[in-house]
Each structure stands twice: as C-alpha cells, then as structure tokens.
Amino acid sequence: MRKLICLAALCFLGYSQVQAQSQYYIQKDTVSGGHLLKGIISREVLAQDSTFTWWKENFVAYAKDNEHVQKFVANSKDVELVVFMGTWCSDSHYIIPRLFSFLDAAGFPSSHVTLIGTDRAKTTISHLTQAFGITNVPTIIVMKNGKEKGRVVEYGKTGVAEAELAAITAMP
Which residues in 42-68 are b (16+ Cβ under 10 Å) and which e? Predict the structure, then answer.
C-alpha cells in the first residue's frame, strides 16, 4: 500500500515536472560550501548549472556499449525510471550523466525518468527516500506497470549499471 501511495505521489510529481520542468530547492551544502539540489530535478538543470562541471565531463566521456543499449531498447517498453541522486555525491557525479548518455543512445524518453535530488542525509520531498527504502545514492529504480522490477544501487553488483538495467528490463 505504501508503494502505491508513493507511486501516486510520483505520478503527481511527474505531471508537475512536465508543467514546471523541475520542483527543487537549492540548499547550501555545509560540507563543500557550494549548493545542492533537493527535489525533482530535470537533466537540463544539471547540464546548465555552471557549478556542476562534472555533468558535461561525464556525459560526453561515456562510451556506450551497443549490446547493452540494444538489449535495453528491446525491453524498455512501458518502463519508467525513478532515479535518486545527490548533487553533492561523487558517485552520482560519475553515474548520472553516463546514465542519461546511455538513455539517449537507447532513445529512451526523458519523460519516463523522474530524477530526485537528495541532501546528504538522503532525505527529499514527500519522504520519498524513506518510502522507497533509499540508503545509497545514486539508486536507479526500474518500474513497469506500477511495480518495481529491480534497482541498481550506486555502481551495481557488477560495476556496469547499464548492463544491469538491460538485464532488469529483460526480466519477465
């Protein structure tokens, strides 16, 4: 029941994201002195923020593996991704731009990705991190027909997140 409530909240937030592009809060990061984003974020916000130099570096540096891309394309119909990240997190700096580069190669629509920024305590709007059991960022959750099919936490079990995403989408 809790996951259904979370899914309803995400649907509402996703609709709101389309309407307003993003619903996030900028907070001062007490550790780095910079800022962090908390809430629903669009990839455009990350790409255009001059303080997030890591975005472009890792987006263009990613060398796509066509086998993983094709497997993902073949099985990603009706798939939604819920992605938790931290703009303060070095793993997110590396993985999230590469994820979007992979998704672009697969022709996966951005409208099927909900990107959620957390603070260092891994909290965000509407208690979504608690509802989804998020303990580490980034966490990429693959949803199909309103149910979680699987997730990739940080670098995943194999260290190749895109291979794990392709495998999750291929599961019955």
Answer: bbebbeeeeebebbeebbeebeeeeeb
Q: State yes or no: cis peptide before 138, omega within 30 of 0.
A: yes
Rounded CA separation 5/22 (Å): 21
Q: What is the pLDDT of residues 105-142, one digit of tens each?
A: 999 999 999 999 999 999 998 899 999 999 999 999 99
CB atoms within 10 A of CB 141: 21
Q: What is the DSSP string of 38-65?
A: EEEE-HHHHHH-TT-HHHHHHHHH----
In the numeric block, the tokens 């709007």 are attached to 125
Task: Find out whether 87 and 138 touch, Cβ atoms under 8 Å.
Answer: no
Which residues are paired to 114 by β-bridges?
82
Q: Which two tokens stand for residue 118?
A: 């957390």
Structure tokens at 134: 């998020």
The helix/strand/coil state of 115 is strand
Three-state DSSP class for 143?
A: strand
How far is C-alpha 169 from the chain's CA centre?
Answer: 16
pLDDT (tens digit per residue) in 49-107? 888 999 999 999 888 889 999 999 999 999 999 999 999 999 999 999 999 999 999 99
